[in-house]
């Protein structure tokens, strides 16, 4: 019996050229999955695919606008036709949003940007892949959330509501898809300590708050956010990717409708 967690699985990763999406894709491929990377930027997708191929894995890329429902559905249909089905899907799409602005100064557009952006792409991608999952072959839909889903702090209205919406979406979708042998599991990492170095928009997101405190973004993450966790550190891309591979595998076959807490103890369930 193979020791690979995802041997012969077909995995679609939306936002596969990003920091988290790319890290997950590399681990999925290492664990035996055939990985289909979708996103807006061919160069970043190709870079991840090149790494996977160099390590002996299988990866294919496609330029897909995840806000375009027809394009996403056509891509999912093509993947399923080529590979014989879709076993795992992860939406790792990022939407730039405001953090730090209080209600009095927050515009409606800034409030709605993450809510509409994150939830729209999650709906579109989930609907596209679910048609090709489950029944006699188990399917897994993975989602990404943030601590803002449960934090009670000021200045993250849009961010927090969008994160809570993603977690609610995952729970409700899990109930709907369970009869079809499809699991839905969320991952809730904190800010990721090595994401800025991997090309994430984390640096841009936290730059204003870091500057206000006279810190670099890395100092803000390590000396600020990290100190609010029980472990006094933030999660790494590797930790998130390894957890995603486990959750996508049969070893987590009894898990659905829940969220894996990867906040290093910023939140305690």
Automatic annotation (TrEMBL):
GO MF annotations, alphabetized: oxidoreductase activity
Any matching Pfam family: adh_short_C2
SUPFAM superfamilies named among the record's database cross-references: NAD(P)-binding Rossmann-fold domains (SSF51735)
UniProtKB keywords: Oxidoreductase
Protein name: SDR family oxidoreductase
Protein family membership: Belongs to the short-chain dehydrogenases/reductases (SDR) family.
């Amino acid at each position: 019996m193979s020791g690979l967690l995802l041997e012969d699985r077909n995995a679609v990763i939306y936002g596969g050229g990003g920091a988290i999406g790319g890290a997950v894709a590399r681990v999925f491929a290492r664990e035996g999955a055939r990985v289909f990377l979708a996103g807006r930027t061919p160069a970043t997708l190709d870079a991840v695919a090149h790494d996977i191929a160099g390590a002996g894995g299988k990866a294919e890329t496609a330029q897909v606008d995840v806000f375009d429902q027809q394009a996403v559905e056509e891509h999912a249909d093509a993947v399923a036709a080529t590979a014989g089905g879709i076993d795992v899907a992860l939406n790792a799409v990022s939407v730039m949003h405001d953090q730090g602005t209080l209600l009095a100064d927050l515009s409606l557009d800034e409030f709605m940007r993450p809510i509409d952006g994150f939830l729209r792409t999650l709906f579109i991608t989930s609907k596209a892949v679910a048609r090709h999952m489950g029944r006699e072959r188990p399917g897994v839909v993975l989602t990404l959330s943030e601590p803002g889903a449960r934090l009670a702090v000021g200045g993250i209205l849009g961010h927090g509501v969008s994160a809570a919406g993603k977690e609610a979406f995952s729970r409700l979708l899990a109930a709907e898809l369970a009869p079809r042998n499809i699991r839905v599991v969320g991952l809730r990492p904190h800010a990721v300590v090595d994401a800025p170095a991997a090309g994430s928009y984390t640096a841009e997101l936290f730059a204003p708050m870091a500057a206000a405190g006279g810190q670099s973004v890395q100092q803000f993450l390590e000396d600020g956010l990290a100190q609010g966790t029980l472990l006094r550190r933030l999660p790494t891309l590797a930790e998130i990717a390894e957890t995603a591979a486990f959750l996508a595998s049969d070893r987590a076959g009894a898990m659905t409708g829940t969220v894996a807490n990867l906040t290093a103890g910023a939140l305690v369930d």
